Amino acid sequence: MLSFTSAQLDAWLVAYLFPLVRMLGLVAAAPVLNNKSVPARVRLGLGVVVTVALAPALPAASGIDPGSLVGLLVLAQQMLIGIAMGFAMRLVFAAVDTAGEVIGFQMSLSFATAFDPQNGGQSAVIQEFLGLLATLTFLAVDGHLMLIAALAKSFAFLPVVAKPLGAAGWGDLARSGAYVFAAGVMLALPLIATMLVTSIALGILTRAAPALNIFAVGFPITLTVGFAMLAISLQYLSPNFQRFFMHGMENIDLVLRGLAP
């Protein structure tokens, strides 16, 4: 008959439970992995499979009783670490969403909305289109595998220990929010400039021909020019998306170093 001591059970819990909680925090916040269309059982199963594969290669954690108050605090700490990693990459996709909102507004398509399964609500069609392109690019460059690799490396910076997290990491994560607006506007800048020139041309046309119904003529022209410029810009979106993803991985590394006790 097999028998286990409480010390052995605690060692197994520490070896697998804390990495699992960090992995589930990443899955809960990271783009693509936290898609609402993916069933919760699938996400939980993914976390378990990845944890079982990674746990033997991780540094051993000792001296933590998972049933004690310290163990519960370390458990919450691991969840926060995973959420911070996923949120750092989620900011990149928020920049793409910002670019889609700005482009849709400039093209007078802000009223055209569709259901967005990623956010679980209504979003502008241009925003959803760019979001789908960014998601496909993220999967094509193995971004999901990069996140799992970053999770495995995070245990080198932040091993499972009963020490408080550094406050600098949260400050770095908050400051990286400025990237959402800067990168979103830069991504939409070519179309913004094109629509500005189009609006100036329509204004001159209205002054030259006051009898012209600008609302009947301007809307089709704005849509045509906007879609034409968007089609021309498609070939340049993928390299920009890849730069965004690399910036997101750099943010993850910066946040992890700042959270190190």
Fold and architecture overview:
- The chain has 261 residues and is mainly α.
- The chain has one domain.
- Helix content is 74%, strand content 3%.
- It has a two-stranded antiparallel sheet.
- α5 packs parallel to α8.
- The protein is elongated, with a radius of gyration of 24 Å.
- 30% of the residues are buried.
- The mean pLDDT is 81.
Short description:
This protein is mainly α.
Regions with pLDDT < 50 over 5+ consecutive residues?
Answer: none
Q: How many distinct beta strands?
A: 2
Taking the alpha carbons of the first and last residues, their distance comes to 44 Å
Overall structural domain count: 1
> Structural class, please?
mainly alpha
Q: β content, as a range?
A: under 5%
- Based on CA inertia axes, which overall geometry fits? elongated
Which descriptors would you attach to this protein?
single chain, two-stranded antiparallel sheet
SSE map:
Blueprint: H1 6-29, H2 40-54, H3 69-106, E1 113-116, E2 121-124, H4 125-140, H5 143-157, H6 168-175, H7 178-208, H8 214-259
Antiparallel strand pairs: 1-2
Helix pairs in contact: 1-2, 1-3, 3-4, 3-7, 3-8, 4-8, 5-8, 6-8, 7-8
